[in-house]
Amino acid sequence: MEDHKLRVVLLFGGRSGEHEVSLNSAQSIFKAIDRNRYSVETVGINKQGQWFWGVRPEDAIKEGFSSVDQSRQVTLVLDLTHPRFMALDGSVLPNDGHFDLIFPVLHGPYGEDGTLQGLLEMANVPYVGSGVLGSSLGMDKDRMKAVFREKNLPLARYVTLLRVDFIDRPEDCLNEIEANIGYPCFVKPANLGSSVGISKAHDREELKNALDIAALYDRKIVVEESINGREIEVAVLGNDTPKASVPGEVKPAHEFYSYEAKYSNIGSSLLIPAPVNESVATRMQEMALEAFRAVEACGLSRVDFFVTSRNEIYLNEINTLPGFTEISMYPKLWEATGISYSELIDQLISLGLERFKDKQTCKISCN
After folding, report:
1. N or C: which end of the chain has fewer CB within 10 A?
2. Domain hosting residue 207, numbered range
3. CATH number, position 220
4. CA pair distance 232, 234, nearest whole angstrom
């Protein structure tokens, strides 16, 4: 019976500041995936970038990777005729390391930004989620906004600056932000998620501190005007013909939906469906699909909006590998739309296989 199950490798952890978020997402998926349909193996990546076979998300959450047996370190073999994982010490892995699909649950840089996806493309293996382009555009808030602007999607005002410019010309950068954005404003690393490194600045001193913090995480920093509105999110599921969930509203415990508010859930609440009128909900769903297609996302994404008291809608960002924990908005939105957590995992796996099969039909040479 085991031979007839689809062999799925759950890949999690990673080097980014969202390492712990990834562990929690992977734990939820590992518990919920249908064992009657799938044979599940796990590969955990520590913060140094080493890959280990058989690490359970729950154990990694409790103990970290310090106690992992180093003999379980593995690598992905880039052999298009025989893709598999291989133990670095030469020991034999279950099923000789073969698998049918990789389910990556790595948020942030080196997992959600196209780098991992490029590796998996080189290995010619099926995987869940967006490809290289969709992942990289979805991660880089500056390039993402440029694509959205080209599609005439409504955005808050923003400026982008390089860390080196802030180091060399701090006063010029502060003056530019004050002249073009003003206060309050949000300061974000361009390539990070889960609100890591994000600050809200109300004056020049807070702005300088916020830029210092963001510069720790990325060479490029995005500063956005603060929109006085409700935070509404829409989940998207699909490949070439995606569908949108009902909208959900975030009621953060803090001044904005910080990392702590997202993952401790203390004081924060999610209203699903969001209490908005039907026309606003429909427009956000349409815009979510437009954003999904604009960056050429695949599989799953969560699209975030601000809605003002006058029902003006501003597109904030798209997340191509949103949090998948038990309190995460993405699975909750689909549950409210009629797709259970376990069924959602099934559909994402099917979409990954569908995308891989479709790509195999493309010629890459004239021969």
Report:
1. C
2. 158-225
3. 3.30.1490.20
4. 7
